[in-house]
Amino acid sequence: MQGVLTGFAVIAVVIGVGYVIGLQGHLGEHGREVLTKLAFHVASPALMFTTLARTDLSVVFSSRLLVTAVSTAVAAGVFAAVGVARGWGVGRTTIGALCSSYVNSGNLGIPIAVYVLGDASLVAPVVLFQLVVVTPVALMVLDLAGGDGQDPLWRRLLAPLTNPIALASLAGVAVSASGLRVPGPVLEPLTLIGNMSVPAVLLAFGISLCGSTMPGKGAERHPVFLSVALKVVGQPLAAWALAAGVFDLHGHQLLDVVVTSALPAAQNLYTYASRYHVAGTLARDSILVSTVLSVPVLVAIATVLG
């Protein structure tokens, strides 16, 4: 239990600092935008490269990864189907699908894996799947949907290849797969830069809360409700059903996959929404509400399955 509460306490404090910064105006009117761009173009790519370059890719073939992949697809697919039926638009539906299925595996998943599951490497399958598969695909959709239609098709198809996060993820996988070892003088500066990613995202998120309305109100009420329900309840249930019923996982292995699936929506989704100027309110509210509601859900899961 302590790990769950510690992880959320760390996030809450940093977001609170961002909120105070926003209230005081210390970073000026463009502070949130600068932090978002810093995270998207510099810090997050460095974090993804250093994480993947040092990760054993053998976890890709684990049953945990299959459970993660299918449960993610189920949650995202349900939101996408509803978004298409309701005419919410490609960009808005993509962000909502991410908020329904993309877990906070980094700044929250790692401390929970350490304190609750006893092994930080247990979040590696989730991190790899999200960085290597989900993020590039989602950003490709956002890149293609965000164009003005004037560029030729080949240019729009190649646009995601210039995305810094996608490029860094692919580079990290290539280094890990090749068995090469990045020299310390190269890796250490990248690690230092990557360490800015999570604080920058959390601070920007906190600043965005200044002057905002209560979550779940206005035009985004229904998308927020759906994404939060899928993230907090739907995805963990899908993971439990798959792990226990299909892959015959029990005990600690079952606890691992259900806990990681029950993590709330990741803060970097707000960065993506801000970067592409689409569904910012949906991302912000979904992250905030799912983070709050996931606390009792994670405690309950740890109690029942632990």
Structural summary, described in words:
By secondary structure, this protein is mostly helical. It has one domain: Na+/H+ antiporter like fold. 75% of the residues lie in helices and 0% in strands. It contains 14 helices and no strands. The chain has helices at 2-24, 31-53, 63-86, 90-101, 109-117, 124-145, 153-158, 164-178, 184-194, 197-208, 221-246, 251-261, 268-275, 280-305. The radius of gyration is 19 Å and the shape is globular.
List keywords for this structure.
single chain; 306 residues; mainly alpha; Na+/H+ antiporter like fold; 14 helices
Counting structural domains, the number is 1
Overall mean pLDDT: 86
Question: Which CATH architecture would you pick?
Answer: Up-down Bundle
The number of helices is 14
What is the CATH third-level topology name? Na+/H+ antiporter like fold
Helix content: over 70%
Q: Rounded to an integer, what's the Rg over CA atoms?
A: 19 Å
> How many β-strand runs?
0
> What is the terminal-to-terminal distance?
10 Å
How does the major sheet shape up? none
Question: How would you classify the helix and strand content by structural class?
Answer: mainly alpha
For this structure, what is the CATH class? Mainly Alpha
Report the order of strands and helices. Answer: HHHHHHHHHHHHHH
> Beta-strand level of the residues, as a percent range?
under 5%
Q: What best-fitting shape do the alpha-carbon axes yield?
A: globular
Outline the low-pLDDT stretches.
none
